[in-house]
Amino acid sequence: MGLSKPESRALKRLLREMLNDGEIVLNRKGMYGPAEEMNLVTGYFEAHRDGYGFVVPEKPGERDFFIRPRQHKGP
């Protein structure tokens, strides 16, 4: 992008703050986007002792998502 070091640091700091606030999301490809336009589901992760788990959506009526062991960063 042709930014100077101070500009680059300021941009990284701003992106980190926006990520922490939930304003933007970093996808698997390393690209940023507005959270409300990313077609995301919020919920909680239920882990099974065999390594897999499920994301249980907060919104009633939505189906759970199966998560394979290698798809999450859990223990």
Summarize the structure.
This protein is an alpha+beta fold. Helices cover 23% and strands 25% of the residues. The strands form 2 sheets. A 3-stranded antiparallel beta sheet has the order 3-4-5, with no helix packed on it. The protein has a two-stranded antiparallel sheet with strand order 1-2.
Walk me through what this model shows.
The chain is α+β, with helices and mostly antiparallel strands. The protein has two domains: 1-38, no CATH class; 41-75, no CATH class. It contains one helix and five strands, in the order H-E-E-E-E-E. The chain has one helix spanning 5-21; strands spanning 24-26, 32-34, 43-47, 53-57, 65-67. The strands form two sheets. It has a three-stranded antiparallel sheet, with no helix packed on it. A two-stranded antiparallel sheet has the order 1-2. Strand 4 (53-57) and strand 5 (65-67) form a beta hairpin. The radius of gyration is 16 Å and the shape is elongated. The mean pLDDT is 88.
Structural class: alpha+beta
Strand order of the largest sheet: 3-4-5
Number of strands: 5
Total of domains: 2
Percent helix, as a range, is: 10-25%
Oligomeric status: single chain
What's the gyration radius in Å?
Answer: 16 Å
Number of distinct helices? 1
Q: What's the end-to-end separation, in Å?
A: 37 Å
Q: Write the H/E string, N to C.
A: HEEEEE
The pLDDT mean sits at 88
Give the overall shape, derived from the CA principal axes.
elongated
- In terms of DSSP E residues, the strand content is 25-35%
